[in-house]
Target: Thiamine diphosphokinase
Amino acid sequence: MKTIALVAGGPKENLPYLNNFNHQDVTWVGIDKGTIYVKECGLPLAYAFGDFDSISENEKFSLTEEQQNISIYPPEKDKTDTELALEWALTQKPKLIQLFGATGGRLDHLLANIHLLLMGLSTDTKIELIDCQNQITLYRPGTYTIMKHKDWKYISFIPVSQEVKGITLIGFKYPLNNCHITMGSTLCISNELICEQGTFSFLEGILLMVRSRD
Model:
């Protein structure tokens, strides 16, 4: 599997148009109510995870009748449905995991889902959290190239670790050179690329990048 697309059951209005992310190398996975979103888009649902407490009994019955690869969990458990699905996805060793339907609604679930991105840092799998307004990714220390995109104008960098050291931004409206920022800093919010491509790099810590629409 090259890409696994996980669709959770967050508010439907926060979803991007999922069909835009469909191609032959994508495996679609529904999480609880997210299974309904996948089916409504006519996308091939390969796996389903969850306690399915957010769908009707008729929808749950139809799903269990139609779907062979389904994992049903009790509502009382120590991990969220999204975490369980993400753990499974990482065992498949894809190049990319895209997580949809994980924003909006309850703030506790949003914060937890952002922190779930940490699970990918010790692997070779990149994890993206995507909604209709934002794309969120976590990075380990290193140097990265980023391309300008007309739909994703704003680029923000937020420290997830206590400190991020040696941040350098090249090709940005607000460049930085070997800058240190601490958790809670807003220094790197709402930047923009002024070149067709730019680079960002840092030496220590964990950095979250958010690309946002206007």
Q: What stands out?
A: The chain has four helices and 13 strands.
